[in-house]
Amino acid sequence: MQYPWHLYLMGTMYIVAGIIHFIKPKMYMRIMPRYLPAHKALVLLSGLAEIFLGFSLFFPVTKDLAIYGIILMLLVFLLVHFYMLSSKKAGAGIPKWALILRIPLQFFLIYWAWFYLQF
Predict the structure, then answer these.
(1) Which residue spans traverse the membrane (predicted)?
(2) The whole model's pTM is what?
């Protein structure tokens, strides 16, 4: 079965996002909620998960499992998005309107992933 081009776009997006976790881990560590332990390890682990799940979208045998993994990952990442709204320092200098906009964007990404379960 031929997948739509935008499934490959989504997979590539997660792969690139995951690679950035390794290139600029400090950027992600700045936005980690204080109550979570081992910030650097969590940043690298989440980057590895994004890369793995992104590649897994490309293969019929792993696609659906990857979709469920992406949805779960995006739900967990909501913790970071809400934490960033908790204070100016937690927001890492990002304008409040952009931080608020990230919440519905996260739900759009979840829907986008869910959409591919039909293929």
Answers:
(1) 6-23, 35-59, 65-85, 97-117
(2) 0.93
